Amino acid sequence: MTRFIVRPPHRTAVRRVGALIALLPALAVGQSKRPMSADDLMRLRSVGGVAVAPAGDRVLYTVSAWEHPGAKGDTALGDRHERRSHIWVVPYAGGAARQLTSSERGETQPQWSSDGSTISFVSARGAGTGEDAPKPQIWLLPADGGEATALTTAREGVVAYAWSKDGSRIAYVTRDTLTRDAEGLHVAANRRLHTRWARFDQRHK
After folding, report:
1. Number of helices and strands (H, E) in the chain?
2. What DSSP designation does 26 have?
């Protein structure tokens, strides 16, 4: 039986990364000596998804902030802004952090492969809106740099996932799917969750 493990983030790493990001907006407001405004609140960033590399030398984490869809620069705060997160990496011993992802809809749930050579995450990438909008899928990114590639094509998207202990497979959770005609006869809340399997292609390493 293949064993799957979920590694809890190291508490020290969580505190280090979280404290750094959380202090930045507060310091900016404190230096200006003025009350915090609604715009200041929208500039606040939060940290999550902390994952320490198997070798213990690097830490993945997500930074969530309000972003404007498709905008390369800032626009009037509150104007169609949406909350999104992107993945960053920082040396465990401290140093400069580096942003790894920047897709339009953001990324979540970063994890390391067992040998630390691959970074996985969940992201909804591609064109389309409404029912045709892309669903969250598992993506793989070489830890040393390169382009991310999609691993799954789950119709209803990926809810959660975990690597096998040997790094050869990934188990993921998705919603049970029906044909579009059948879906009209069922309530979405009654859909069952199933664990499905995706074989990890060694070519992604």
Report:
1. 3, 11
2. H
Q: Report d(CA 107, CA 145) in Å as an integer.
A: 17
Q: Which tokens in the block code for residue 173?
A: 């959770």
> Nearest CA to 61 among 73, 70, 52?
52
Query: What are the tokens at 165?
Result: 């202990």
> Does pTM surpass 0.85?
no
Which residues, 6+ apart, have CB-to-CB distance to 1 below 8 Å? Answer: none
Q: What is the pLDDT of residues 23-71, one digit of tens each?
A: 455 444 455 677 876 666 667 778 888 999 999 999 999 998 876 655 4
- Residue 204 sits at φ, ψ, to 5 deg, of -80, -15
Conformational region of residue 26, where left means phi above 0, alpha means psi within -120 to 50, and beta covers everything else: alpha
* C-alpha distance from residue 137 to each of 50, 95, 149 (Å): 19, 31, 10
Q: Let me know: does 60 contact 50? Beta carbons within 8 Å.
A: yes
∠ Cα 169 174 175 (to 5°): 155
